Structure formats: C-alpha cells, structure tokens
Amino acid sequence: xxxxxxxxxxxxxxxxxxxxxxxxxxxxxxxxxxxxxxxxxxxxxxxxxxxxxxxxxxxxxxxxxxxxxxxxxxxxxxxxxxxxxxxxxxxxxxxxxxxxxxxxxxxxxxxxxxxxxxxxxxxxxxxxxxxxxxxxxxxxxxxxxxxxxxxxxxxxxxxxxxxxxxxxxxxxxxxxxxxxxxxxxxxxxxxxxxxxxxxxxxxxxxxx
Length: 208
Hints:
Strand content: under 5%
Order of helices and strands: HEEHHHHHHHHHH
Oligomer: single chain
Strand order of the largest sheet: 1-2
C-alpha cells in the first residue's frame, strides 16, 4: 500500500518518486515504471519484447506450491515460508542452515504460531499492551527507541481517526519491525480494519 500510494498521490509523472527521507538537493529518484503491471505484462515484456531466457525457478515454485516471489529468504516475511527454500533449493538451504541454524526452528514451528491471535490479544489490552509488547519483541536499543517513537506518532493519528489507524495495525508493524524508513500510514482496502471502518460509517449514516 505504501508503494502504491507513493505513485498514485502525484498528479504528474506519478511513477517517478523521491526516496523516503532523502536529503534535499540529492539528485536521486525512484522510477517505478511498472507499478501497475500484472504478472502477464512482466513475462510478455521479458519474453516477447526482449527474448530473455525464462527463469526455471518459477516452474519449481509452481510444482512445489512455493512462493514465486524472488527475494531474500531470511526477510521477516519470507522466513515464514522457509520450507519453500527446502522444496526448491535444498542445497542452498543447507548452506543457510550452516550459517543461521536458528532457521530450522522457524521451519518447524512457525506454522503453529498464530500471529493474528497474538496481535488481537495485545490490541485488546489497549495502549497498556504496547510497551510490554515492545519490550518483548523489539530487541536492541535502536529498534526499541524507533518502536516507541513510531508508537507515539501512531497514537496521535489514532486519536484523530481510530478506524484509519487501528491498534492492530500498530502491533503488526511492531511485530514485523516495519519501522525503518516507514511513516505511519492509514490502513488500505481489503484489510479487516478497513472493513470495520466502512461498517461503522454505514451504521452512522443509517442512524443519521
């Protein structure tokens, strides 16, 4: 949603954006020229227009039911499906395990960890649950300080518009450490908070 908003909020050359928190006068831009492309558009561009070789990894991902998004396997989200690496690149997984043996615990136990339940339980405690959550899950002084600053900014926006800035969204950002290089943004369509907000607005209209 952040990437999408960075493009559509501009009226002119909306696919060219300035990197977040870049220094003024620094001649650096992000050109997100395919932000609205579909998967078929990408493959058509590669194969039909540039005759590029097809990456066989996508076939392996399809055969094994793995995630076909190519990225860092130890990313906080990708690590949830570390089993995909075993299914598609077992030798590579062995090399990862030699360096990061803790990933095997992730592989074995992540499916039994209910993230949404943890988020809901923490959000149910209100703002009293935020600081203990930061202490438990945001390790390191830099991360903890950033989490506290992010939470303070979120709380101010939540006070003005609680449906656009639900507590569940804050807890999820803290848990995923989605704090660096990000500003507090409202939730977008197709989220539970957005559905709740729409239902509340509809009820208010009916009452009026």
